[in-house]
Amino acid sequence: MDMERGNHSTWMRLLLASFFIIVTILSFSANAKPEALVLKPFDQLSPESKECAACHKEKNPSIYAQWGRSKHFGANVGCYECHQADPVDKDAIKHQGFDIAVIVSPKDCSNCHSKQVEEFEKSHHAKAGQIIGSLDNFLAEVVEGSLSFNGESPAAVSGCWQCHGSEVKVLENGDLDPTTWPNTGIGRINPDGSLGACTACHQRHEFDMVQARRPEACGKCHLGPDHPQKEIYEESKHGINFYAHVDRMNMDSSKWIVGEDYDAAPTCATCHMSATSDLPVTHDVGDRISWTLRPAISEKIDAKAKAMGKETKSWQDRRADMQNVCQSCHTKSMVNSFYQQFDHLVELYNEKFARPGKQLMGILYDEKMLTETAFDEEIEWTWFYLWHHEGRRARHGAAMMAPDYVQWHGMYEVAERFYIEMVPQYLEVVEKAEHKGNVDGAKRARKVLEDILARPEHAWFSGKEPDSVKKARKDAQKAFKSRYLNENK
């Protein structure tokens, strides 16, 4: 009897399973286009990729294993689909009877991911390789380094270019120039003319979306003394919540919509790239940014394009999209108040230190008090630190809610650099020029500094604060000391 019941139960389970399969098929047939049932771009792995995989499985088992875990593997996209090349391509080589290219460029990726590549090409990331001629690259090529590695500086090759990207050069024998390869810099200039490296964010050969969504993916480049976004994120409430509740982040969700698939915290990708219930994914990382915090003086992100007469997405529209992300977790009033705090910090930095600093450096150059060679005089280093390091830290700290980077790593150091280093160095340069006979230039330069320090925000330094302001501060200090002493009795 028990056996009969068991057989009957098994039979019923099979019958129900068959019924649900039939219903599912009929549902697809009625409501979906025929191609909706095709789960793979290719029905099977190509003969070329089969041959590649068989060899690499033995010679490069880690690469083979990574590919085996990828969505490419599941879609029958293999080595040859990505690495195939035209024999006339600059970087094409013969390999086991196939024409292939070692470099898989965005142009190659666009064969399947055209929308993503098109968005990326509009981004600031795509232009990151255009670093030649910048002060940063001058430091790495000349001040720090020497052109001792095939005519290039090892400091630039292993430093700047690994984040920014370099122009990948092909030697006469067909090999890739080792000064420019390997390189996964985000703005890499590829032999086929395309810009960028998808593998800067999407680690080859697995292309794991979890890895690309985590803050560490951006932290390869966005960290350190001049743009510590990774450290800033880790200090912020967002970063604290992410690491505390990463198990609730649903990182492997196919759609990964903030507020729906996860709500513990945003990552870099959440704010700058990923989908909301209203916004699609974008590979233009600047699409939601309203200020540019990179240069000496911050300006709205569309200012340069507008000055050149180019049409571009307005900073207001970009901000509205970022606020859309914020409002997936926060109230509109809170988001608006945050942006007021952010804007006022940027404007404080701009008006109190950045514009005056640039004005001071400008008059020194105009009056020929400094040489044309960058970084050969102390005040040039001081000014560079002020805006490129401390000033960026303060602004990025405000943008990403990291108070310590706004204050002690930011505005405190900006102020110390300006008042205690830049002003005395400026006066020393002017005095030397005066002794050499540039009396009129020295007079003009002193007048510039005098006008700057006469502004209300610098009155404490010039000693011209109103007595009422001084008294109020002394009263506050006295009250603080009194509280402190009473609390510690």
UniProtKB/TrEMBL annotation:
Highest taxon of the lineage: Bacteria
One Pfam entry name: Multi-haem_cyto
Domain Cytochrome c-552/4: 109-167
Organism: Vibrio marisflavi CECT 7928
InterPro entries: Cyt_c-552/4 (IPR023155), Multihaem_cyt_sf (IPR036280), Multiheme_Cytochr_ET (IPR051829)
Name this polypeptide is given: Cytochrome c-552/4 domain-containing protein
SUPFAM superfamilies: Multiheme cytochromes
Keywords: Signal
